[in-house]
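quick one
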Amino acid sequence: MNDAAAIAELQGLIDAAQRVVVFTGAGISTESGIPDFRSPGGIWKTSAPIRFQDFIASEDARIEAWKRRFALDETLAAATPNRGHRAVANLIASGKAVAVITQNIDGLHQAAGVPDDQVIELHGNTMHASCLTCGQRYELGPIRAKFAADGAAPRCLWCDGHVKTATISFGQSMPTAEMRRAEQATLAADLFIVAGSSLVVYPAAAFPELAKHRGATLAIINREETGLDGIADLVVRRGIGDILGGATGVN
Ligand code: NAD
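structure w/ nicotinamide-adenine-dinucleotide:
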């Protein structure tokens, strides 16, 4: 299928739908310069993820996690929403889409103009931090400065708990409220569009599966094969910006 045919098919599905839900993964942000995990050259080709249990158990693991986070500073600061993010924001603003469920932690959907209450962040957000014991929120600026000065992993000023970016690591519990909201949105959807996810991380990947089983049309835009291509109504193995942008009239 060429770009024009894929755009026309997706546009037809969007026109026919009443309640679209968009589900995004790291692939929607690669066009903003943020590498994904599993593409060739993705982050995990060079470093294995740090599991939550290791973060809790080991000061070395915590220090390594913070080093990795600060190594991404320049990339994240330079990243701005791309055509794919703008297309999603347009679908939301027009009322066609009710929510975006994202595995991303970069805040780019909000930066593109999607209201906070219509972005469901399944894996949290890396642009701030929080205490794992009392939940106190921390901005990264002061943490960065102290880490540069003493090289120690940050502790909570109130309860001495471990402070971690507000993201969900492997082995960490999923956020209850976000999981519930994502399920509600998924059950309400008549068109569920996946953009830029390998669909191998569960429970996140269960949402497109659920949408399809509950009768929604499932469209997947992803350069590589995904685990759910076999049950999808439309599979487009091309760049998200061109396809989603083209189908929504966003440049
Ligand atoms: P993934 O890396 O497993 O899969 C990304 C997929 O996107 C790949 O299959 C790739 O082929 C596809 N892709 C990349 N660029 C594309 C493009 N321009 N057009 C079309 N397809 C494209 O990512 P995932 O499924 O989101 O799961 C990995 C985890 O990574 C998530 O839990 C997420 O929290 C985390 N993560 C987030 C970011 C971010 O916030 N930007 C970046 C890296 C990883």
